[in-house]
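Below is how a single chain appears once it has passed through the pipeline. First comes the sequence as given, then the structure the pipeline wrote out for it. We keep one example in the README because the format questions we get most often are answered faster by looking than by reading.
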Amino acid sequence: MNMEEISKKLAGSPDGIWVDYNRGTFLFIVKDRVWQKDELHSAAHREVTVSFVSKGILDLFVLTIDDCLEPSDMPLCMKEADAGMIASMNETSQFRWQIVLADEHSRVLLSREGSFSAHDSAAMKKILLDRLNQDYSTEDFDHAYEKNAARYEPYMLEEQAVFTERSK
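Resulting structure:
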C-alpha cells in the first residue's frame, strides 16, 4: 500500500496502534502526536519483532521495535475480515507486513516492510481459516480480548506465540 493510500486510510483515526490488512500485507499502524528523531531512526534501523498469538478465539500480533516501541498487542478478529482477506487465506503466497508510523495529522513519517516466512505464513493461514468456522461473535472476541488484556501485559504474550519473527 503506498503512502498516499495509507494517509487517506488514517485520516480521522485516533492515536493508537492497530492492525489492518491489504492485499496480502498486514499493516501495523502506530499513530502518535509526536515522534522524536531517535524513535524514527530506531524504527528504520533497529530490530523489529513480530509475534503471532492464537489463544482460544483470540488472535493477535505483538509488535516490538527496539528503542522505539515497547511490546504492543494488536487484536485481529477474523469475523471482521473482508472478502479480500478471506480469499488470500487460500493463496500460497507468503504474508507480508508493513509498519507505518504516522503523526497526529495522519502524515506517514516512516514505513518499513518485511515478510513472514513461508512456514509461518502457512501456519497463520490455517489458524485464521479455522477461526472463520468457529462459532463466536465480534462481541465474544472483544470480551476475550479485554479479559486477556487485564490478565497479561503484551510482553507476556510473546512467550505464548505460535511464532515470532525478527527482522533487522
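The mean pLDDT is 93.

See the next section for the split statistics.
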